[in-house]
Amino acid sequence: MAGQRVLLVEDSEFMAQQIAETLSHYDIDVEVVHTAEAARETLDGGEIDCILVNHDLPDETGLEFSESISSGTPIILLTATSLDSLAADAIEAGITEFVHKDNLATGSMGVLANRIDVAIRAIQ
After folding, report:
1. How far apart are CA 106 and CA 5, in angstroms?
2. CA 43 to CA 51: how far, in whole Å?
């Protein structure tokens, strides 16, 4: 897992801080932005190994953002919404993996770190 660069697109400052801080313990470098527009600018400026995107962003949904980029980078959707209701649309939008935010609140960041690693390895 060492040296992986992750772009986190999360509008909640608290959640972004929690995710970034915890993933740093897994030697994952997390760059945080709060909007889809800022994420696109970040993607234009450097190499990112994986994108974590919240479903609900202030300027569009995580699905809309995922459909709009063609980076070939794995995308993990973070959502508090029922995964069943999003699955088909998310797959069509190019989402690689789903993580329910409730799971993150219960201390399952190791699972998220593993999913990031697996998603990155799958495209190498």
Report:
1. 24
2. 9
64-105 pLDDT, tens digit per residue, is 999 999 778 999 999 887 767 777 888 888 888 888 777 666
pLDDT at 104: 67
Residues 6 or more apart whose CB falls under 8 angstroms from that of 34 comprise 9, 10, 11, 13, 16, 57, 58
pLDDT at 123: 81
| Enclosing H/E stretch for 86 | helix 83-92
DSSP H/E element including 32: strand 28-33
CA gap 22, 4 in Å, rounded: 14
Q: From CA 88, how far away is CA 114, in angstroms rounded?
A: 23
Q: Which domains does the chain have, with CATH numbers?
A: 4-123 (3.40.50.2300)
The CA-atom distances, in angstroms, between 121 and each of 42, 52, 81, 85, 115 are: 22, 16, 27, 27, 10
